[in-house]
Write a structure and sequence with these properties.
Layout (H helix, E strand, L loop, with lengths): L10 E7 L3 H11 L9 E7 L6 H6 L9 E4 L5 H11 L4 E5 L3 E2 L4 H10 L6 E11 L22 E2 L10 E5 L2 H5 L8 E2 L2 E2 L3 H11 L3 E13 L7 H22 L4 H27 L3 H30 L6
Parallel strand pairs: 1-2, 1-4, 2-3, 6-11
Antiparallel strand pairs: 4-8, 5-11, 6-8, 7-11, 9-10
Amino acid sequence: MSVATPTLPFATVTICTYNRARWLRETLEFITRQDYPADRWEVIVIDNNSSDSTAAVVAEFVSAAKPPRYFLEKNQGSSFARNRGIAEAKGEIIIFTDDDMLGSPAWLRDLMAPFTLAGNETIAAVAGEVVPVFPEGLPNWLVNRWRPLEFRTDVGPLRSNQLPMTANLAFRSSVFPEVGLFRTDLGRIGNHSLFNEDHEFCRRVLAAGHVMWYTPVGLLQHQIPASRLTFKYTFKQTFDAARSRVIESTARGGKGFIWLLSRLLGHSLHILWSLFLSLLCLLTFRPSRSKRFITRAGRGLGYVVESWRALGRLLTGQRAPT
């Protein structure tokens, strides 16, 4: 007796983009050619108020095997764009990916596979592997900074401390009415970056009692351009990432005066130590290591700045961002 093939869920692939027309074209070239039943998926592009040729690039794919639907979201910020994608999506599964990804025609089918396994009806989300690649080269001082997720070697559930990125992440659409949308005070806003909006959302999904899975075969390559590998960009990224952790942690609750004060004092010492090591590296003719220690100081500075702001709000009775 033959076993019936499970019906593949209808999927919406959502690409949020801002002034990345060159990279978006490469992403659409592979995404619009997925080996997935044509009547069971769609592609939507959310243009987050770009000033480049993003709209024209999307129009180039009007005759593609799966032409993307285009939407302009004028509220600046990656979370606004993702929330617009949720509103426009028709899929039972909503997949988020970035505008600078590369993959194979099997990517969508591989990412969706865990949802179709018998007994997996309770899975709320599936994350795929993300592997950084450097088409314009990687500076020596940033070697080992960018790494794949590598949460596990097989398909299976994630632990509570394994939080995936929206660069390659699929959710059941039923999750959003239950746990809400992405926080708009976190995430990239134009050329300014806060982070953790995806991790914060995943924590809410887990707190609601849902299960999240990971598949190493649903793999995408994340293209990192040279413009994101400069010392200036890396320093700001580490600074903003630390700020984001404080914002997100305090909003979750349980992080009061003592926690903030410990972050303020501990990271102040961390800044001084990192700057000392950076100077030592310069004196011993190791400029690459000096840059690494300065960016670590930038991370500490982000913790100090945002912890100080949070302490100020706490002492004056102001509400934290939510």
